Amino acid sequence: MLRQDLKKYILCDRYENIIKQLYLHSFLTKNIYRQMKELIEKINTEFEAFSKEAEQQSEKGNKAAGTRARKSALELTKLFKEFRKVSVEESKK
Question: Is pTM beyond 0.85 here?
């Protein structure tokens, strides 16, 4: 009787660990997709700002807009690198 109870306990413990791992994986996957979605939104927002400032510089010769456009370009580079990092991390799973 004791041996059967022990086997049941071990089996239940294994199932519990599997369920915990599945829950954790699900949570991490949702977190990564949320993070990617946020990055895409930031990229789109920054690109809109870049386009606006670059247009002002090229059409009106506004030097300050050129400075802001270059700043946006640097920010876009950072965001693209972060997106690539998260994307590669997710694809390895």
Answer: no
Q: Looking at the predicted structure, is the pLDDT value of residue 45 above 90?
A: yes
The DSSP result for 17-57, as a single string, is HHHHHHHHHHHHHHHHHHHHHHHHHHHHHHHHHHHHHHHHH
Residue with tokens 């789109």: 44
Cα distances from 19 to residues 1, 6, 15, 39, 67, in angstroms, run 27, 20, 6, 30, 53
Print the domain residue range for 29. Answer: 1-91
- What's the total number of domains in the chain? 1
